[in-house]
Every structure is written in structure tokens, then in C-alpha cells.
Write the C-alpha cells for this entry.
Amino acid sequence: MDFLGEGLHRALQLISSADPEVYGIALLTVKVAVVATVIACALGMPLGFVLASRRFWGRRAALTVVNTALAFPTVVVGLLLYGLLSRRGPLGGLGWLYSWQAIVIGDVILAFPIAAALSAAAVQGVDPRIRRTAETLGAGTWRTAWTVAREARFALAAVITAAFGQVVAEVGAAMIVGGNIRGSTRTLTTAVALYTAQGDFGLALALGIILLVMALVVNIALQLLQGRGNA
Amino acid sequence: MLELAGVRHAYEGRVVLDLERFAVAPGALIAIVGHNGSGKSTLLRLLALVERPTAGEIRWDGVVVSSPRLRPRAPARRRITLVEQRPMLFRGTVRENLAFGLVARGRRGAEAQNTIERVADRLSVTSLLERQRHELSDGEVQRVAVARALAVAPDVLLLDEPVSSADRAAAQALYAALAEERRARGLAICLASHQLEDAYRWADDIRALAEGRLSPVTPENLFRVELPVGGGEETKHVRVGPISIAVTTAREGSAILAVPPTDILVSTAPIVSSARNVFSGQVTRLGRPRPGVVHLTADVGIELIAVITEEAARDLRLAPGSPVTFAFKASAVRVF
């Protein structure tokens, strides 16, 4: 138990002393998570809306694919992306392997199905009379979508939270395509894995606490937004 | 003119509407009557262009605006507005709800506010304008939904059971407001109702739906029944509420019975005749939809309506509460 207490003490020291390495890792994690969440939601949520609200040939198959993609193992995504981005791969020319952009791509691939599947479920949960009423009052496609989205705002906020949660906690793909390079592509999760393996339990715990605080802050922010929207 | 041509509509393979033609002429006031599940709401949703038919076409002035392959465009939809049976208000205040359709048409500012004030006044919802949807009763929601539909000045207004949550006085006020709006703008109104009295009082043209088809008989006296199995073309006796109606049909199982009101013989004395259906009761209402014609409603265990002439009603001295006997032949009963 001592080492746990010592670890916690070290963690608080590192956090309170504004250790540049710790904060550098945290900032990179925030950058990657925000960019990946925004891209995944910007692509996935409209797809979810279309899957939930339009009837077209292949819709069921598309829903099955999206739902199946929820179970993508992160290391497999990392491996495939590694093959694409490595120098001999089709996207090797970009030179993105072992960069934060590569981690973002991996995170987007993992969070996109979450955004699509959960927003499809959220939109399906909205009473169909809302869409019909908007249409019958003359709303076009975008205004109708916006009206439905406003009704599903709580569920859609949960979609963003879930996508952010996936991205911020992801370790497998980030490790493979990011390379866990100090000062460059080391994120909170890959750093926790590394420092734990190296026996630097205090540093790993400090980073773990920051990760938890970050998740907590995002959730509180979304809850506050929801509360305001409930007026 | 809004028109359905050769329209069939099915949900998961089950046909719920099958209409060769259904037209709403400019300025028409049509009531669609029928049992629950007869296809009224589906018909209104198709007319409102918020659903596409499984087969057939919906036309506006002869131009196809909706079909299985053609998704209705917003400009076509903007001429028709539907108020559903249990309407939903959007998140926000009543004022924001009334503004929704106007904003969708790019109308904002003073002109839009004037329109909102006018329709709010017409539907007596002015005092509700700043309220949120959860602060309204069902009847108020219904009135706000009608006001919201009128605000966009549609050419055709479709109403699905518009007074289902209103008391008698509120219903009359709503119909009066609609009549006023119609006089002012000449819009066509098509309302679905299961209340025949309302339909007769407010509509110029009454169309009955039974099992998704237009019923060829006048829409009164429709009953959903379970016909006994077997017996061929023999006379069958089926229970409708506390009475038993004799009907000649080979049909079995679930069916709609229609007793044409013009085929009912009315007497103030007991009748002995070949008619297999003879029921006695009391007159409950006398309606006069047109000069010379009387709609006589009597409670004979169930409510039945007979159509008689003004002269017959006078000779028989019929008034609410009068004893009366209705008689009709088993072969007069139509089965759908």
C-alpha cells in the first residue's frame, strides 16, 4: 500500500509544480482528443442522422456495418493505419507516421462509428411527428435536421461525450502509429503505459489523475450546457 | 388542386390505403370520416407530402409532386400544412413555434410578428405566446398547433381530429375560427374526424373511409364487426354493442358493416314486416344539413342515423326523446 501512497504523493507534487513534461503530454492529449472528436462527430453525426431518418436501399446493411465497427479492436486499427502510413504504404508520402496527425486519424477511425451509431439511435428516439411537423411547416432538409437535433440534444451531447471518451482513453492505435515519442507523440494513455512498465508509478499515476480530471471536466461542461438548454 | 391518383400505401407489406382518386379542390371543406384504423391519418400524411405513397402519384395542379420515386420538395410542401391528431410543439415558446414556418419562408421582423399576433388572436392563444410547451394543456397545444399552421397561410390545411382534446365550446370556437379564416382567404380545409356531428356541421363534402378505401355509402352507421365463420350466403347475425344485426353476406371474420341511412324505414309505431332488422328506441337528435332533408339520430341500443324528408319528420312529429322504430333489410347492410 505504501507504494500507492507514495505514488499519489508524487502525482500531486508533479501536478502542483506544473511539471513541463506532464503538462506537455496533457496538452498534446487535449489537442489530439479535441481535433479527433470534432472530426469524428462532424462526419459521424450527419451519417447517423441520415441512417435514422431516411429510407434507402442498403440502409440496414449500413447500420450493421456501423454497429459492427463499434467493436473495432484499437490495435488492429493501429496496425492497418501503420500499413497505410508507413513509408512503403499508399499514404507513406504524407510522412505522417509517428506524428500527432497519425494518432488523430486512428482516433477518428475509432470514434466515427460511435458518433454515427449513437447519433442514429438518438435521432431514432425523437418522436417522428417532430420531423413531419417541421416538414409540413415548410422547413427544408437542413432546418428539419436542426429541429430534430434540438429535440435530441441530450442524447447527442452523450454522443459527443462517448466519442471524446473513446478518443481520450485510446492507447493501442496511438502507441502503434504515434510511436510514443517523448515531447512529440506521447499522450497521457501511452505515457501511463510506458511509465508503469518502467516502474515510475508516481508519474504514471499523476498522468492517470490528469486523464480522469480531463474526462470529468468535459462531462461537467456538457452537463452544464444541457442544463442551460433545458430552460 | 391537390389530388391523389392510383395511390396505394403499405406499412411492412400491409396495405392501409388504396384510393383510385382523391381530390381536394381549391376552397373545399372536406371531412374524412371513418373508424380508427380506416386510413384517415395515413391519407392526411400523404396529402401533406410528409410520406411518399408505396404506389401511385400525388399531384398539384396536374404536376406530380410525390411518388414512390419522387421525394416531395419544400416548395410543394409549403402550400400544404398538416396538424396531426396529437400535435407536437417544438422546444421554445409558443411565439417561437408560431414563427417556425414563417422563418422557414424567410419572413422575420415586424411583418412576421403581425402575422403571429393575428393568428394568435384568431385562435385565442395570445395569452399563451410567451409560455413553453410543457406549460400548456393538451387542448391549448392543439389550438397553438392550428395557429402555427394558419400562420404560414397554406393553400390546403389538413387537420387530423383537430378537436380531440377540446371540450364542446372550445371545439366550436376552433371551427368558427377556421370558418373565418376560410372566408378571409379561401383556403381548402380537409379534416379527419370520427365525430359525424362535427363533420356534418362544418363540412361541405363528407367522404367515408373503411379499410383504407373510400366507402361508396354515406359514412354514417359504420361498425367494425367479427362475422361468424361458415354459412355461405345465408343471413348472419352479428353483435354490434347490445343489439344483433342481420346481414346477408358470404364474408367471414373481421369486416366493416355499413347501414345506409337512406335504407332505414322510420316509424313511431312497432313494425311487422319482412325486414330482419327492427330496433326500437328514442330520438336523440335531429339535424338538417340541407333544406328538406333531416338526419334523424336515434339510440336503439347503438346510435343509428336515418335520413328522412322534412315532410316525413313533420308528419311523424319527431323530436328529441320521441319513441321511434328503425327497420332495414338484412340485404341492405353493406359489408366491407
About this structure: The mean pLDDT of chain B is 89. Helices of chain B lie at 40-47, 74-77, 94-104, 109-122, 138-151, 168-185, 196-202, 310-316.
